[in-house]
Amino acid sequence: MDSLDPASPLAPVIPIQRPPRIWKFWGTALWGLVVFGAMFAGQMAVVAWFVLRQEGPLDMAAAIHVLGGGLTISLSVITGLPGVLGSLWLAIHLSRTPFADYLALRRTSWKNVAIGVGALIVLVGVWELLSRATGRESAPGFMMDVLRSARADGALWLLVIAFCAAAPMSEELFARGFLYRGWSESFLGPVGAIILSSLVWTALHLQYDWFFFGEVFSIGLLLGYLRYRFNSTWLTIFVHGVNNLAAVVQTIMLVSSG
After folding, report:
1. N or C terminus of the chain: which is more exposed, having fewer CB within 10 Å?
2. For residues 178 and 32, is the Cβ–Cβ distance under 8 A?
3. Does residue 250 contact residue 138 with C-beta atoms inside 8 Å?
4. What domain range is 72 assigned to?
5. If residue 30 lies in a helix (H) or strand (E), which one and from where to where?
6. How many domains does the chain have?
7. What is the pTM of this model?
8. What is the three-class DSSP state of 185?
9. Distance CA 28, CA 9 (A)
10. Structural domain includes residue 6
11. How far apart are CA 251 and CA 246, in angstroms?
12. 17 assigned to some structural domain
């Protein structure tokens, strides 16, 4: 009867911990809107700052000029990243799942990197051939205009950081990290999650026309497959960054030769 002995120590009280959870279809969709809103707010803060410091009347023409500036776009892409990270941290913290585990922030092998980059080269090469066959520009006009503006402002280096580092990280953590994770464990399954997250990711690129929409969507499908096959969002971030770097280099060459 030691338990009745007042001198005996009390048994430690072990707190009941709720098991971790994964946001399913609707939870992922709703939190996805929050993440997108946080990213958009971070980007618009930079745009608003440039518009307010613009000299002269604040008319529509001045606003469009600011919105299309290479420096403005570069900074807005970079400032969208903290909003994505903060909102993702909140959503994942409430799920009681480790941040890196939820988003599949796992190291991968160089073999997987080579497979991902090789598949990207083949896919982009097919689209390049199709572009030439249809007489289209190899790079979208939006990219060329932004690059010219950034170079004129002395912000080309900032554009490279924004497009090749900040954008891939924000978009991959959002699409292939968060959206894919939740939707793949819902009724959609991995295939449905790859398709739907790719559609959402494509919708973020409203600056392009239907042809480049198709290319972006196909790249999204590839990145989604890499996320599913190798279970690493770091891999998709790297491959996404390589794609954007190649696009920037290609655009620089076209602008220089034009």
Report:
1. N
2. yes
3. yes
4. 24-257
5. helix 25-52
6. 1
7. 0.88
8. coil
9. 46
10. no
11. 9
12. no
Decide: residue 208, CB within 10 A, 0-12 exposed, 13-18 middle, 19+ buried.
middle
Phi-psi category of 56—alpha, beta or left, where left has phi over 0 and alpha has psi -120 to 50?
left
Share of the chain above pLDDT 90, in %: 64
Instruction: Give the contacts of 100 (CB within 8 A, at least 6 positions apart).
Output: 106
How high does pLDDT run on average in the chain?
88
Is there a domain that residue 145 lies in?
yes
Per residue in 160-196, is it b (16+ CB within 10 Å) or e — as a string?
bebbbbbbbbbbbbbbbbbbbbbbbbbebebeebbbb
Of 4 and 101, the structure prediction assigns the larger pLDDT to 101
